User: Fold these one by one.
Assistant:
Number 1:
Amino acid sequence: MLLPSIFGESLLDDWMDLGDVERKLYGRHAANVMKTDVHEHDEGYELDIDLPGFKKDEIKLSLDNGYLLVNAAKSLDKDKKNIKGKIIRQERYAGSMQRSFYVGDTLTETDIKAKFEDGVLKLSIPKKEPEKLPETKTIAIEG
């Protein structure tokens, strides 16, 4: 027997089917990809990374050889003592994901600002010019 839903289909149907286009771009579990908006300003870049359902302590940022690495990992609650009945479908994400962005090797971890609010990781990355090499000075030769 199929259970009705507010979407007019069965609760057990895959009403959130992502379609062939997103499957080709991101794989079968496209919902597990860090969706990111990148905005450029004169002074730098602003990144908004969607991480719904994650907590701040489940997210790790690091800087390695000019790459900003964003890691997020979570597990489902293992305590099932208070759950009545059996789970017939579980769609919440458990696992880890990672994304990297090349930000250049002139930035340090203190240059990048991060804020996590309402499931969105907001990063502020300044534009920093590479250090200029010293000008070549010529030396006059007498004689």
Number 2:
Amino acid sequence: MKNTLRIVVSFALVLGIAASSALSQKKPSDADKAKIAAYMQLAKPGPEHKQLESMVGTWDEEIKFWMEPGKPPMTFKGTCQNRMILGGRFLLCEGKGGTGPMAFENMTIIGFDRRSNKFTTVDFDSEGTYYVAAAGPYDESKKAIVMYGEDVDPALGTQKYDKVIRIVSPTKYVTEVVFKDPVHTHGLPEFKMVEITHTKK
């Protein structure tokens, strides 16, 4: 099943080329064959997916959450379980944290789009019925994956943010959410609202 979509898309490409060839009564050209080969190559996991694979495992989390700039953070403990899915193409992260009325769950799917050369993330949690998404490259100057996203909220307007993932060592990585819209930053250029330090069990 893991290759079904890739096979379907590849089959559709082949059918499209075959139909075009049938109409023109020509065999698929070398250029058409090259397009299929290029697609098949881009569909395979690459070195960036190996980078994500280094985050597989069970992790303890120290979570810091700032309500606004200049205020001390609230702190929580949590855990997450990370595993590769879809043939090593995506990292699925499932986490829990907090206690009592402050308890929450979250799920994140992180990938790398070899077409755009950008990391991608889609995030869900038990605090809402929506998702947030972001995409971006590895930033060599920050030694981190920096993904930018925007989300339109009916109360807060357009939220702009970076999601930053920094792999510190084989047993530690840090995730940050940095807001860049004026509602969150209160006039500052940016405001780090969330910092999660993950330590491997």
Number 3:
Amino acid sequence: MAVPDFQSFFLPLLKYSADGEMHSTKEAYAAMADYFSLSVEDMQEMLPSGKQTTYKNRVAWSRVYLSNGGVRLDK
């Protein structure tokens, strides 16, 4: 499976945060990898810059947009 676009992470992240607890970014990365059944290869795919993995970048951007919308996701 290819890594989904960042918008595809919105709903799963909202559901993940629905328990009212604060979750670290590291926990969110793991939860989203599980949710989308990402393979090791998917999780190792790098951005063209070579500085960050694609899936972590997309999860991070999704968290930024949700946070800007008022959703608290961080510890």
